[in-house]
Amino acid sequence: MRALLALALLAVAPAGAAGEAPLCRAEVVLEPARAFVGEPVLHRVRIVQRREVVDMRWETSLSFPAFRAERILGPGGPREHGTATETIEERRVLFPARAGRLALPAARIACESASRVETAEVPAAALVAEEPPAEGRPVGWAGLIGPVEVSVHATPDRVALGESVSLAVTVQGETNVWAAPLAFSFAPDVAELFERPSELGRDMGRSLRLRWYRSFDLVPRRAGVLEVPELRVAWFDPKTRRWAEARAPAISIVVSERKLATPGERKLAAPAERKLGAPAEPAPDVPPAAGRPARTGRLAAAALALGAVLGLGAGLWLGRRRSRSQRPVPAPVRGEERDDVRAALRGALARGDADGAAGAAARLLRLDLEPALPGARSLAAEELAAAAPGALAGAVALLARLERARFADAEPAALLELAREAERAAR
Q1: Is residue 211 part of a domain?
Q2: CA distance 156 to 253
Q3: pLDDT grade, residue 373 (50/70/90)?
Q4: Cα torsion through 348, 352, 358, 361, rounded to 10
Q5: Is the confidence at residue 26, as pLDDT, over 80?
């Protein structure tokens, strides 16, 4: 029995117990070992293994509490070849989430050769994180550590009422770009802004460059020149210990009263436009035909006028049908888009933000109507009411009430009540 126990202990003895070199050994390097909250820190795990190793696996995985971790390079990392060993390096960029002494727990790897299996510890490590200095800190700073670049693009730069503009904002740099506060503010009677889900792009190599993409739908509410204000993003430079600011210039968007008609539509619409306001041209005096009373001439003129009106109506109807058939097919509603809008609505209701809640509620109703009424994202409530089947009449009527209240300076309590009603009515 004692002999069997001795053999078992030899089988699990640590590397080097019989004078043999260990199959693997590991070390951890943090650069720098002291950083600001949000500053990128390079975390390297160097594993040196003998060439006889046929398999290396993690028995206890790495963990990064109080950090956001972004891996760079592919699995296995760069390899360095020596005479009897091979070095594997795993690299990650860590972003401290809070100030203090932040611990990185130890891990464990298992290395296997043709004749034995050994384990080796990946040592624990620690990083000291501190907040940037309060002196000179900009009021709008939200934790961004720089340097970064910011850009804003608007497409198109000319729209008509009822159409929307796509705003694309990009923040890029080798740092925590997602901390950039990107806020545009528009009065409710000027424009309405709807945010789409954001995306994070990564350029991975020996370093990590990040691009944070934010996109918005901007819907103008009155004609004129709509100004997208200059975007300013404050950041802190850990190397110089100074505050700085990235800027994207303002953008002007021309908003017209309505979409310009085609030449054919303008020709058809001309009589209607004169009827609405412009004085009609005087008709020439034509004497009645011989042997026919003047009354008959007036009846004939009336019949001709009626035919012209009916022809105009038919032409406009056909033109509208043709223009509708040529409209681009709207993008489908994504589930995450609806979830984001619903979350924004709930957050605004919880804060008592009447304007924010009403805007999110209108957006949510429009997203619910979009599958059955393509274009509901941008059509006026009156247009939706004309096209909506009976089953959707209630939702369209609620949207109309909500938008009338929003643009009529209704009391905040009334807006909040309508937003709650929309939340209950939405799917």
Answers
A1: yes
A2: 8
A3: confident
A4: 40
A5: yes
- Asked if residue 154 and residue 123 are part of one domain, the reply reads no
Who's near 146: CB < 8 A, 6+ residues apart?
A: 173, 175, 235, 236, 237, 244, 246
Helix (H, G, I), strand (E, B) or coil at 387: helix
Classify the phi-psi angles of 169: left when phi > 0, otherwise alpha if psi is within -120 to 50, otherwise beta. Answer: beta
User: What is the CA 219 to chain-centroid distance, rounded?
Assistant: 16
* Residue 344 structural domain: 335-425
Instruction: Provide the pLDDT for residue 319.
Output: 46
> Is the same domain home to 212 and 242?
yes
User: 């022809």: which residue's tokens?
Assistant: 311
What's the first-to-final CA gap in the chain, in angstroms? 71
pLDDT at residue 107 in the model: 95
- End residue of a domain, out of 214, 231, 256: 256
What's the CATH code of the domain at 161? 2.60.40.740
> Strands 251-256, 158-160: parallel, antiparallel or unpaired by DSSP?
parallel
Asked whether residue 136 is assigned to any structural domain, the reply reads: no
Number of domains the chain contains? 3
State how far the Cα of 154 lies from the Cα of 218, in Å rounded to an integer. 9
**pLDDT, tens digit, for every residue of 297-327?**
444 444 444 454 444 444 444 444 443 433 3
More confident residue, 23 or 306: 23
Cis-peptide, bond into residue 133, ω within 30° of zero:
no
Average pLDDT of the residues in 65-81: 69
Q: Are residues 166 and 245 in the same domain?
A: yes
pTM equals 0.56
Q: Round the average pLDDT of the chain to a whole number and report it.
A: 78
φ and ψ at 260, to 5 degrees? Answer: -65, 135
